[in-house]
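Predict both folds.
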Amino acid sequence: MADTPVIGIIGLGNMGMPMATNLVQAGYEVYGFDVNAKAELEFAAVGGKTGLTVAEVVQKTDVILTSLPSPDIVESVFTGLDGILEHARAGQTVVDTSTVTPQLNERLARASQAKGIGYLAAPVSGGVVGAKNRTLTIMVGGPKELYDSVYPVFMALGQNIFHVGERVDSGTAVKLINNLLIGFYTSAVSEGVALAKQMGLDLDLLFDILNVSYGQSRIYERNYKSFIAPNDFAPHFSLNLLLKDLRIAQEMAQQSGLSLPITAELLAIYEQSQEAGFGEQDMAALYAYICQSQSAVQS
C-alpha cells in the first residue's frame, strides 16, 4: 500500500459524509460515491472527488471504505454486478464500517481473500456527532497486520480505535452488543421521561438530577437534550436502523445458542413504533410513540 493511500468511500450518508470530509481535511485524496446526487455535490464542495461509478472509484483508490445502511445493500455493493470485488485488484484493502451480520463479514472476507484483497470489518459508534468531531469508536475485526496498515486512516476518523481480534466478525459482535444496550437504554429513557411527564415533573430538572445520579447515561443525555427536549426527532440514527441492528443481535444470539427473552419483548416495542410510523425518525422518537400510545389509551 502507498505511504499515503488514495481513499474511496462508498456511501455519503449521515455517517459516511462526515467521515469522508474528515479524511479530506486530514490531507487524503478521497473519491466518494453515493446514489444521492445531492450528497455527491455536498462532498465535492468540501474537496472530495465525485461523479464516478463504484467501479471507477475502486479503480482509482488503494483503500475503499463503505458506510451503508443495511446488510443487503452492503452485499450488493461488494458482490453485485459492477460491485467492488468485480473491479478491485490484488493488494487493495476494503473496510466495511457498516453494521451487518457476522455471517456477511465472513462471506465478504472469503470473497475478498480469493482475489488477494484485504478485508476488515470495522463498525463504528459515536453517531453523527462523533463522526463530525473525529471522536468515533472503531471496532475492527480482521488480520492485525492489515489493521496496522490502515490504522492512520482510522485515526483520521476517530479517537478510540480497537483491534478486537483476528476473527473478521469480532468487531461486529462488539458493535451489535453495543447497539443492543442502546436499544434498552433508549427504551428506558423513553418510558422514564414519559412517566415523569405523566407525574407532572419538570423534565429539565429531572435530567439535571438524574445526570448526577446512577440513572445517568450517554443515551439519556443524547436522546433528551438533542431530541426530546426540543421536540425535534429529525434522524441522526433512525429507529429503523436501530431495529435492524436489534434484529441482527437477536439472530447472533440465537445462532450462538443463547436465548435473550427480554430482547424479544424489546423488539416487539420497536416493531410497534415502526408500524405506527416512527421508523424514519430518530430512535429517540420512541418516547413520542409511548406518549402517543398513552394518549390513545386515555382517550
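Second protein follows, with its predicted C-alpha cells after the sequence.
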Amino acid sequence: MPFSVSWGVLVLAGLCYLVPSSLAEDPQEDAAQKTNTSHHDQGDWEDPACRKISYNIIDLAFDLYKELADLSQTSNILVAPTSVAMAFVMLSLGTKADTRTEILEGLNFNLTETPEAKIHECFQQVLQARPDTQLQLTTGSSLFVNKSVKLVDTFLEDIKKLYHSEASSINFRDTEEAKEQINNYVEKRTGRKIVDLVKHLKKNTSLALVDYISFHGKWKDKFKAERITIEGFHVDDKTIIQVPMINHLGRFEIHRDKELSSWVLAQHYVGNATAFFILPDPKKMWHLEEKLTYSHLENIQRAFDIR
C-alpha cells in the first residue's frame, strides 16, 4: 500500500542487474509467481539449460557486488552481471584448454551439465531479444588488442557472428592514443552517453576487454525540477557531500524489510521497468550488503505485486 512520505536524505544501496524474466522464477514455485525483472521481452529462457545459466548469473551478481563493495566503501557501484558474463564468455572463444575452462567455471557455469555450445546459444537469445521501445538500453563488448598480437580468424568470425562484436588493433605503447581510440569508440556506440571511460592505461597492456552499458528511461511519475535543492548526502558516518536532491511530498510505494533493516522504495519507469531503492537504517549499510540475497529481491517484488 502506498504511503505519504517526505524523504530528505536517501542512503542508497543499489544492485543493478539486467536479466531475462525467467531469472525471477524459482523452479519449485508455482508458475503464477513468476516475476519480471528489468525485462525487455527477452524471452522466457524456457530451456532448462538456459534457466540454469540464468541462476548462475544471479549468483555471479551477488558475488561480484560484494567483492566490489569490499574494495571501496565510498564509491558508487554499477553491476550488470549478464553483460559482464557475456563479455567473458565471448572472450573465452579465443582461449583453449585450461584457460577456457577457468573462465567459464569462474562464471559459475558447470561444463559437465551444460556444454559450451549451449552457453553461447543461451546468450544469443538475450542478444536477439526485442527491446522495450520506451527504454533506451545500449550494451556491448569489444576487444582492443595490441598491434603485436595476431588474432585467429575463426575467433574474429565467432565474436562477430555470436556476439555482434569486433576486435580492434591498437598501439598500447602510445597510451594517450590508445586511450583516445577506446574512448571514442565507446562514446560513438553509446551516442555520447559515456565519455572518457578509460582514464589510465599501462604501456605493457596487450589486450583490453571493454564492456559498456548505458540506460536512459523516464520516470512514470515525474518530479518537478524547481524542487531541486543542494543538500548533504551521507556517504558514511564521517563523510557528507553536497549533491542535488529533490524534496517531494506525495504517495510512494514503499516496503519495510525487517531482515535487512531497510526501507524499499519502488519507482516505475515509462515502459516495463522498475527501480528499487533499498534504504538501510542508519549505520546498517554493512548489514544490508552482508545479508542481501536474491530471495530478498523476490520478496520485494512480491510485496509490490510486480509480476
